[in-house]
Amino acid sequence: MTHGAHTNRTISAQGIARVEGEGSLRVEVRDGRVSDVALDIFEPPRYFEAMLVGRHFLEAPDITARICGICPVAYQMSACAAMEDACSVQVSEQVRALRRLLYCGEWIQSHALHIYLLHAPDFLGCADAVEMAERDPSIVERGLDIKRVGNLIMETVGGRAVHPVNVRVGGFYRAPDPDAIASLADPLRRARDLALATVQWVSGFEFPDLDASYRFVALRDEGRYPIDRGRPSSSDGLDLDAGQFADVVVEEHVARSTALHARLEGRDHYLTGPLARYALNSSVLPPLALEAARAAGLSAVCTNPFRSIIVRAVELVFACDEALGLVEAYEPPNPPAQLIVARAGVGTGVTEAPRGVLLHQYEIDDRGLIVRARIVPPTSQNLLTMEDDLRRVVEGGAALDEHDLQWRCEQSVRNHDPCISCAAHFLDLTVVHS
Amino acid sequence: MVSTEATVLVAGIGSEYRHDDGVGAVVAAAVALATTSTRDVGPLGEPLDLLGRCNDADLVVVIDATRSGATPGTVQVIELDLTAGDDTITRGPSRESSSHGIGLTGVVRLARAVGQAPRRLVVVGVEGERFDVGEGLSQSVAAAVPEAVSRVVELIREVDACA
């Protein structure tokens, strides 16, 4: 609910609908200028960091996977990468390829969910996906068809679609049967076609004008679009290894929020996620995804956050195409996992979760027990930038009425697909606008 | 979540790292042990995960923590009539919402809109006491687990008897 005249108003939304988790935003306008913006988000990783201390290092992937129901693979992958770094272990190329395939499944699942069920309703004037489905079920069916193929990959490689159980430090518990992997090819071809149709569909939306000069941070992976590995890089020249990146990411409390806000030491806030990945890596997209991006009107860098839905759709094409290539080239890792002996040290892992760079860093002792854990999720890295977007949206939205401005603010938050998972699911939980 | 070879699907929704929010998964896992021909495929983090899993099911049982003001540990069985226009499904805020975007009633409405609704959906709710971050069920909720399990098993037997 918003109140006050246009020159003095407060926009407050408790429990932002269609954001993955729990969050609230509050924007205060005084004399036509934004005096305060606070995006407050509950962050479960803090609890998990404390809980991990004293646990065995091999448990980290499974425990941290429970932080998020939408991106458990991201947590497993960053945890594995960090533990393997701590123990100076390199996994085989077959393990890497299978991890990338599993991760593609999560990207497909997560991007389809966000595009079709959480973000598209904003552009179509629907209160939610239910209203959108009641108007035209075929659109939501297409989104669900794509998401189902992501689930199928997760089930085939990860053992189950929700919270996969086949991932371990060093590789996998069991290498999937080649026939099972081959059976993913046809569904992936269909999903890739549907993803191309998705790009075309979302590129026809009307986008509010907003041009932000972001500091982008994403991984770069030796000529490949980054998913499971890469060097943290920025649009203003950073090129670091994972450990160096952990050193320059500074997280701090700000008075207006309970969430930690990340910034780069000496460089201030930044943006991670699809817009950043695309800006730093669009030149290495495979031809099909690149052509889709060009046809949708995207240039090499996209700085309008409302158009992030197009970038996400392009990444959907990429993930389907990439997964298909990995399926066709599948060689079961043998052995499925490398045995790893714990040794005292610090390890850092970074991977690209669907919504941005996910950093894990652990210190373990010589018995393999975790001494210190640090998890920096993409959402906490993006908080300051999301607040900056809100400031621009409100300042540029003076002509909007209260309802439309609040809608635009919530849409602005959803542009970056914030994830605040591990949230409880009460049957009576509702959005309250006050 | 467990499913019989017939067309029954039992889903526990919630997070075991939010204390009593994890009761759904605990009950679902116990149901898997108490019945034959069931398969545990893990707890569902969000109601949306039901979509695509309940098409053409004769019965879907969703087990979740509730916060209705009842005494903690109270087990409630809520039958949702899935015929169009039913008040138990359509009532609620115009903007369907949960902490994960779309709540259970929204998911049911969504499933119905795209022709993927089950024939029958029953919610077994266990009133929770605490939902803050941390592991383990409250004593009152843990004590209610056997009753919730037996209510779910009864529902499955009813369907088996009719099959």
Structural account:
The complex is a heterodimer of chains A (434) and B (163). Chain A is of the alpha+beta class and 434 residues long. Chain A has one domain: Orthogonal Bundle (Cytochrome-c3 Hydrogenase, chain B), CATH 1.10.645. Chain A contains 14 helices and 15 strands. In chain A, the strands form 6 sheets. Chain A has a 4-stranded antiparallel beta sheet with strand order 1-2-4-5, with helices on one face. In chain A, strands 12-13-14 form a 3-stranded antiparallel beta sheet, sandwiched between helices. Chain A has a two-stranded parallel sheet with strand order 3-15. In chain A, helix 4 crosses helix 5, helix 4 packs antiparallel against helix 6 and helix 5 packs across helix 6. The longest helix of chain A is centred in the first third of the chain and has 32 residues. The N terminus and C terminus of chain A are likely disordered. Chain B has 163 residues and is α/β, with parallel strands linked by helices. Chain B has a single domain, classed as HybD-like (Rossmann fold, 3-Layer(aba) Sandwich), CATH 3.40.50.1450. Helices cover 31% and strands 17% of the residues of chain B. Chain B has 4 helices and 5 strands, in the order E-E-H-E-E-H-H-E-H. In chain B, helix 1 packs across helix 4. Chain B is globular and about 40 Å long. The interface between A and B is large, with 48 and 50 residues.
